[in-house]
């Protein structure tokens, strides 16, 4: 077994699609109308990883938007070209919470998405995260 997608709460499908396409240079992998205002929308990067966009439909779900990990970093993007990708993201309006720093696992900077969820942009030094999830 492997994890296929992660549900990502959104206020509006189209605003979230626009952000992921513009800010992260991701693609819409699927957008199927399920009726009643509900859609099956998957977005992801060219190198893998997918989110299933889930529109909040209750007050409780709406309150949870932007709280994917309770204020901690919830999502991790690995980049083979950290400086290039960070510069492109900044040009697209992404707000970084800090300047890049070097850690044992690579260069990292925290940024917020359109709802305030925190992400790490990570430029790996030598370790690559293969599909199995184990560090090589």
Q: What secondary-structure arrangement, pairings included, does this model have?
A:
Elements: E1 6-10, H1 13-23, E2 27-35, E3 38-45, E4 48-55, H2 59-64, E5 73-79, H3 82-91, E6 95-96, E7 101-103, E8 106-112, E9 118-124
Parallel strand pairs: 1-4, 5-9
Antiparallel strand pairs: 2-3, 3-4, 6-8, 7-8, 8-9
Describe what this molecule looks like in 3D.
This protein is an alpha+beta fold and 136 residues long. It folds into two domains: 1-65, Roll (2,3-Dihydroxybiphenyl 1,2-Dioxygenase, domain 1); 66-136, 2,3-Dihydroxybiphenyl 1,2-Dioxygenase, domain 1 (Roll), CATH 3.10.180.10. It is built from three helices and nine strands. The protein has helices at residues 13-23, 59-64, 82-91, and strands spanning 6-10, 27-35, 38-45, 48-55, 73-79, 95-96, 101-103, 106-112, 118-124. The mean pLDDT is 92.
Corresponding CATH architecture of the largest domain: Roll
**SSE series:** EHEEEHEHEEEE
Radius of gyration: 15 Å
Provide the structure class: alpha+beta
Outline, from the CA principal axes? globular
C-alpha end-to-end distance:
20 Å
Q: Count the beta strands.
A: 9
């Amino acid at each position: 077994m492997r994890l296929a997608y992660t549900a990502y709460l959104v206020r509006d499908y189209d605003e979230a699609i626009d952000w992921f396409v513009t800010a992260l240079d991701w693609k819409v992998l699927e957008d199927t109308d399920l009726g009643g205002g509900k859609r099956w929308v998957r977005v992801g990067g060219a190198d893998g990883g997918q989110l299933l966009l889930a529109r909040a439909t209750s007050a409780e779900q709406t309150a949870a938007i932007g709280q994917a990990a309770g204020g901690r970093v919830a999502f991790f993007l690995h980049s083979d070209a950290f400086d290039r990708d960070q510069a492109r993201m900044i040009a697209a309006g992404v707000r970084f919470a800090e300047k890049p720093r070097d850690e044992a696992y690579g260069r990292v900077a925290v940024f917020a998405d359109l709802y305030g969820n925190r992400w790490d942009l990570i430029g790996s030094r030598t370790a690559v995260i293969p599909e199995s999830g184990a560090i090589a």
